[in-house]
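Provenance

Sequences were taken from public entries as deposited. Structures were produced by running a predictor on each sequence independently, with no templates supplied. The record for Chromate transporter from Clostridium perfringens is shown for reference.
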Amino acid sequence: MILIRLFLEFFKVGLFAVGGGAATIPFLYNISDKHIGLHILILQT
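Predicted structure for Chromate transporter:
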């Protein structure tokens, strides 16, 4: 189940990341905050 969820999240990132790497950053922050529990402040340090 977790692999399916992970696949869908990264599929969504890849779908909207046509513009470049900067477009993926908000999606990756959202994934890490929602599923892993890491917050933006932790990732920036």
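The chain has three helices and no strands.
Residues 2-44 form one domain.
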